[in-house]
Automatic annotation (TrEMBL), chains A, B:
Organism per entry: Bauldia litoralis
Domain Nitroreductase per the UniProt entry, residue ranges: 31-173
NCBIfam families, per database record: PRK05365.1
Co-factor(s): FMN
Protein name: Putative NADH dehydrogenase/NAD(P)H nitroreductase SAMN02982931_00703
Similarity comment: Belongs to the nitroreductase family. HadB/RutE subfamily.
Recorded superkingdom: Bacteria
A GO molecular-function descriptor: oxidoreductase activity
Keywords: Flavoprotein, FMN, NAD, NADP, Oxidoreductase
Enzyme class: oxidoreductase
Length: 211, 211
């Protein structure tokens, strides 16, 4: 892993880095879609691992890195998940090659001696429950988004969803731990024939302004 | 905009889509870094707008799309932001070409007739303050992460940070609106010579498991 960054086409000054090519932008953002139906094609563990390895490099507050994931893929795992699912998510989730339970570790600060070795960052959190909750949710959700885009980057499709009982999932998969579920992501090779038309987005002016 | 997705090298069956090339993965994840110092190079509005246009295509709960951004770039804007900054973030933020205030609109549901036209999704939220708060923060933070990666995708560098007074920022920039600040992102062309070594990350086995 490089300790100092210099993009291949960027020497620290001019020429400035070019943007990713159109195919990459399409894959990540413009043509990528939330998939509800997947091809009957297995998902290699190596690709899931690569997506995690990519996502974990993204920035989090104080490098806290609270994201935790359980990849549910066996019949036993799916059966454990099934009672937590809202009816509208049931069939598609049971049929998906893999369902990731994306969560965050409320005791993330116990990893800070490894993650943030240059200061006693653990002490900034311990005893401050509001700050712990904010950081776990905020940085864990940032990492979940990096993970969605990382799945797309390695050629997989994602179907992120709410619509499940967090408490039931936590009881089934995280009992006795400090991990809480955030949301679910069905993963596989999406069946483009089963997509609905894309929903509208806001205009730039509805989202952003300059000051 | 395409209504049905077919990646250029993917016809709905085999061959499966390849992953992005190594240079793209480096740019987005592996070699990208949180920058604290930027080159004295202006940031074109067109690139900021393109990053927003890319980020807005990422998935959110019920397509709620609560992300809102103010790009602070003028002397007047920076002066308005200055009193909100923690001392450790002050000098680098005042020097950054652009600072994005990334927030979420707590009244996001008023846009649902446009964003989710096939059902009265607005009614699912109105009066349910806990669900509104959860959705604004969760989906607004997902979109903030898409935006960080979109900045990198268009060739810019990002320096996301907490360490500011949310209430002061909200008063200075969002008074009389329903928008709340989430975090800040300094934006520009990063000065690679000013980077610290990258902090460690967790091992795959500390993050993820299979069930």
């Amino acid at each position: 892993m490089n300790q100092v960054v210099n993009f291949k086409n960027f020497d620290g000054a001019h020429p400035l880095p070019a943007k990713l090519d159109a195919e990459a932008l399409d894959r990540l953002f413009r043509e990528a879609r939330t998939h509800n139906a997947f091809l009957d094609t297995p998902v290699p563990h190596a690709l899931l691992e690569e997506a995690v390895e990519l996502a974990k490099m993204g920035p989090t507050a104080v490098n806290t890195s609270p994201l935790r994931i359980v990849f549910v893929e066996t019949d036993e795992g799916k059966a454990l998940l099934e009672p937590s699912l809202a009816e509208g998510n049931l069939a598609k989730t049971m049929a998906a090659p893999v369902t990731a339970i994306v969560g965050f570790d409320m005791a993330f600060y116990d990893k800070l001696p490894k993650l943030f070795p240059h200061a006693d960052a653990r002490a900034w959190f311990v005893g401050n429950d509001a700050f712990i909750d904010l950081t776990a949710r905020q940085s864990g959700t940032l990492q979940a988004a990096y993970f969605i885009l990382a799945l797309r980057a390695v050629g997989l499709d994602a179907g992120p969803m709410g619509g499940f009982d967090n408490a039931k999932v936590d009881e089934a998969f995280f009992a006795g731990t400090t991990v809480k579920s955030n949301f679910l992501i069905n993963i596989g090779y999406g069946d483009a024939d089963k997509l609905y038309p894309r929903s509208p987005r806001l205009d730039f002016e509805e989202i952003a302004s300059f000051a």
